[in-house]
């Protein structure tokens, strides 16, 4: 029992470090802001840093914990962004207090993305490996293109949809909220660094506690050996779908933050396209697959780096590439992992490796 | 007394090849039953049919009076059959303790939300699971390894951990596929004692596939010999092992 408790304490401490790291970074930035020691460039990056961290944590749940390759996470982000922004537009002129409106916006973004995650998860999770990657990639692109073509408005008679143009909405007065490729203009700017950090902490809380629970064990057992997992009576579909749905919900929340951080919201290749999905995957791989804290660190470093190196114009991408290679080696190369394990062994005086999910 | 496991005329073909054909067996409660035969005879296929990995082309499987023919793996485990694998299948990235706790999954439940919000129920059930898992590990002298990653265990211990995990699901019938494969004589001897202990301590019914004749003759009450997918001989261990046909099948291998 002693060893079990030691193990539990290790996980607890590791999780504490993860939360502490985020909170410490928050305090440092707040102090910098209070004392005016922050560039406007960095200021503009604060909310995106939270968004990318949240998305990386979300995707790591699928890629690292559930062991499935998804390339459609920007699609879930897109759903979260547009559903929540639509809600905020609809309620903008109501008497609902701003805080409560944004709270519901977050909820709506999460639930809508979760709903789509569940829906596409049912057929898609039967596929394996590359097939799953291709289908999720297609899903992300379809969502982005659909949103690009979508017109939506509300008048006295209720909601109107069209995939043609605003004339086809047949509106009788009222307001048009989503204008096809122009997207949504004028969603309230409710996102800020504090809310971003709180949502990141909540995402971390959910994912870390999930991993270290009965449900997380089942998800990881299925990842490690599907046939053995079936043989001990686990419901494979249920747990794969659960991980995928929770992950989609969290990605949706990233989308909510995104939608409420800008005055105009459009579905573009650069924000909700496959390049974005792959960027998130890069964060996950660079931070170490299955390593939740690593995802946050990688998202922050790799988002800040190109901006910080802007002055070095010509060498910028070179340095970026070198950093990528070193991160990759550090988190994933067997030799480096052995080296790290040796250091751990020296520190703990024993050759073992329990969980590394922290 | 009705048999715990009753298999009638079980068969499966893979593209014309009858890997198992007209397989019958009746195993009594608390029995230690052996399934032997040359390589490729279809023994593992029988296990895969019993546990729902393959759907039988014909025949019927009855466990404790329930017809379980055609159910999937998950359902069959819940009905009470657990197994180990000829090629070890552990949850390699999980700790030894967690491997067993995954086995406890269905009989020690709390919801996903309990887990996320660390409710009192979560704490209570997790504590029960830890205690139960350690008890099981103790039977196999694995409790000292509980914080090891499963893939870091020595080979012999991995085989034992698989048995512990299977037992954690509280089966009525335990299937062991070549549990002594790759073990030296000392380890095999020790494993024999462990298997007997499992039968007695857990009041378990065990069906095992094994090549080690010393192990088979040492612990099995009865045997079925499989050859080319069909039953060659069935009966008390000593009778079967001294049967000329059986000896021929083995020597001819
Ligand atoms: N999924 C499968 N597809 C095709 N042939 C199979 C399959 N599983 C087993 N077989 C064949 O069935 C026969 C019996 O195999 P097996 O049950 O593994 O034998 P063993 O008695 O050594 O455990 C072999 O000829 C094997 O090639
Ligand atoms: Mg076999």
Query: How confident is the prediction overall: mean pLDDT of chain B?
Result: 94
Strand content of chain A is: 5-15%
Q: Write down the oligomeric state.
A: heterodimer
Number of DSSP strand runs of chain B: 10
Q: Which molecules are bound besides the chains?
A: adenosine-5'-diphosphate, magnesium ion
CATH superfamily of the largest domain in chain B: P-loop containing nucleotide triphosphate hydrolases
**Low-pLDDT runs of chain A:** 350-358
Estimated radius of gyration of chain A:
22 Å
Sheet with the most strands of chain B?
6 strands, mixed
The largest beta-sheet of chain B arranges its strands as 6-7-8-3-9-10
Using DSSP, what is the number of strands of chain A?
A: 5
Round the mean pLDDT of chain A to the nearest integer and report it. 89
Into which percent range does the helicity of residues of chain A fall?
Answer: over 70%
Outline the fold blueprint:
The complex is a heterodimer of chains A (358) and B (253).
Chain A: H1 2-34, H2 40-65, H3 73-91, H4 98-124, H5 129-149, E1 151-155, E2 158-162, E3 175-179, E4 184-185, H6 193-211, H7 214-224, H8 226-231, H9 236-259, E5 264-265, H10 269-272, H11 274-287, H12 292-308, H13 316-332, H14 334-348
Helix pairs in contact in A: 1-6, 2-6, 2-9, 2-11, 2-12, 3-4, 3-5, 3-9, 4-9, 7-9, 11-12, 12-13, 13-14
Chain B: E1 5-14, E2 17-27, E3 32-36, H1 43-50, E4 58-63, E5 66-67, H2 73-79, E6 81-83, H3 96-103, H4 112-116, H5 120-139, H6 155-168, E7 173-177, H7 185-201, E8 205-209, H8 213-219, E9 222-227, E10 230-236, H9 237-241, H10 244-251
Parallel strand pairs in B: 3-8, 3-9, 6-7, 7-8
Antiparallel strand pairs in B: 1-2, 1-4, 4-5, 9-10
Residues 14, 19, 37, 39-45 of chain B line the site of adenosine-5'-diphosphate.
């Amino acid at each position: 029992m002693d060893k079990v408790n030691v193990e539990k304490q290790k996980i607890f401490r590791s999780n504490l470090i993860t939360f502490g790291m985020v909170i410490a970074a928050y305090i440092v930035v707040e102090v910098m802001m209070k004392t005016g020691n922050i560039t406007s460039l960095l200021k503009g990056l604060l909310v995106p840093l939270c968004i990318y961290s949240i998305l990386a944590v979300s995707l790591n749940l699928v890629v690292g914990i559930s062991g499935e390759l998804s390339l459609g996470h920007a699609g879930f982000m897109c759903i979260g962004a547009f559903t929540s922004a639509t809600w905020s537009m609809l309620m903008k002129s109501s008497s609902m207090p701003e805080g409560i409106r944004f709270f519901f916006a977050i909820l709506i973004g999460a639930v809508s993305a979760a709903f789509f995650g569940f829906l596409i998860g049912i057929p898609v999770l039967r596929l394996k490996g590359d097939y799953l990657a291709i289908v999720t990639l297609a899903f992300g692109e379809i969502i982005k293109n659909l949103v690009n073509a979508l017109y939506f408005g509300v008048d006295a008679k209720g909601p109107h949809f069209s995939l043609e143009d605003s004339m086809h909405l047949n509106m009788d007065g009222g307001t048009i909220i989503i204008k096809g490729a122009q997207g949504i203009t004028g969603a309230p700017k409710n996102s800020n660094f504090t809310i971003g950090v709180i949502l990141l902490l909540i995402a971390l809380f959910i994912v870390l506690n999930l991993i270290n629970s009965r449900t997380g064990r089942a998800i990881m057992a299925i990842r490690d050996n599907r046939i053995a997992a079936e043989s001990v009576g686990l419901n494979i579909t249920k747990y794969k779908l659960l991980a995928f749905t929770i992950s989609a919900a969290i990605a949706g929340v990233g989308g909510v933050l995104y939608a409420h951080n800008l005055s105009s919201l459009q579905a573009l290749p650069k924000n909700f396209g496959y390049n974005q999905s792959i960027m998130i995957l890069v964060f996950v791989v660079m931070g170490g697959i299955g390593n939740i804290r690593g995802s946050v660190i990688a998202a922050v470093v790799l988002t800040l780096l190109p901006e910080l190196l802007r002055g070095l114009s010509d060498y910028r991408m070179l340095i970026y590439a070198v950093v990528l290679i070193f991160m990759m080696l550090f988190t994933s190369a067997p030799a480096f992992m052995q080296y790290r394990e040796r250091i751990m062994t020296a520190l703990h005086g024993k050759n073992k490796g329990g969980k590394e999910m922290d | 007394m009705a048999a715990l496991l009753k298999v009638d005329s079980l068969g499966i073909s893979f593209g014309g090849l009858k890997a198992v054909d007209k397989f019958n067996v009746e195993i009594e409660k608390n029995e230690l039953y052996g399934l032997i035969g040359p390589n490729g005879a279809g023994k593992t296929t029988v296990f895969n049919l019993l546990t729902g990995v393959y759907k039988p082309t014909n025949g019927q499987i009855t466990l404790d009076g329930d017809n379980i023919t055609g159910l999937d793996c998950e359902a069959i485990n819940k009905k009470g059959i657990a197994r180990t694998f000829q090629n070890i299948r552990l949850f390699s990235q999980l700790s030894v303790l967690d491997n067993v706790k995954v086995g406890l999954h269905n009989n020690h439940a709390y919801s996903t939300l309990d887990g996320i919000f660390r409710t009192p129920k979560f704490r209570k059930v997790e504590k029960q699971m830890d205690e139960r898992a350690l008890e099981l590990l103790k039977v196999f002298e694995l409790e000292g390894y509980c914080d090891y990653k499963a893939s870091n265990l020595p080979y012999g211990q991995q085989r034992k951990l698989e048995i512990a995990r299977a037992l954690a699901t509280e089966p009525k019938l335990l299937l062991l596929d070549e549990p002594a494969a790759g073990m030296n004589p000392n380890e095999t001897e020790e494993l024999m004692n462990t298997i007997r202990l499992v039968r007695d301590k857990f009041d378990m019914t065990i069906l095992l596939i094994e090549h080690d004749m010393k192990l088979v003759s040492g612990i099995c009450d009865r045997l079925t010999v499989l050859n080319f997918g069909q039953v060659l001989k069935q009966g008390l261990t000593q009778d079967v092992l001294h049967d000329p046909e059986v000896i021929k099948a083995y020597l001819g291998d």
